[in-house]
Every structure is written in structure tokens, then in C-alpha cells.
Amino acid sequence: MVPPEAEPSRFFFAVLSGVVFFAAYAPVTIGNKTIDALIYSVTYNGSYLAAEGIITIIVISIPPVKKALDYVKRMANSR
């Protein structure tokens, strides 16, 4: 699990790698509009990171998962 303070940098580097390394694979046109690699990378990475964040919040809100995480925290702090 990525700490929340790391999310902006994760997004930045995902977008940067999309522009630098995957620009050749970005679709040139969507409908009748031409888009550049930066807009495509921001849209693509933003959508999957947002979905991942929502799913993560849902999963860690499930009571057995929350209880297990609390148990692991107590075990880690007791040593």
C-alpha cells in the first residue's frame, strides 16, 4: 500500500513515463480531435489511479480487513 503523501509523486512519475516512453502508443485522434501525449497520459493515469484509490478505500473499510490492519500495526509497534 502506497502512503497517501506519495500519491502526487506517483501520479507525476506515471504521467512523465507516459509522455517520455509511451507517447508513440498514444492514439493520435479520438473522434475528430487530435490529442497530444501529455493529455492522454494525464487522462489515462488519472483514471486508473482514481479507480485504484476508490477500490483501496473500499477494501480497507471492510471490518475484517480493518481489524487485521490494526492487529499488524499493534504487532509492529510492540517490538
UniProtKB/TrEMBL annotation:
GO terms for cellular component: plasma membrane. Pfam families: Thia_YuaJ. GO terms for molecular function: thiamine transmembrane transporter activity. It comes from the Bacteria. The chain crosses the membrane at residues 12-28, 48-65. Keywords: Membrane, Transmembrane, Transmembrane helix. InterPro entries: Thia_Transptr_ThiT. This is Uncharacterized protein.
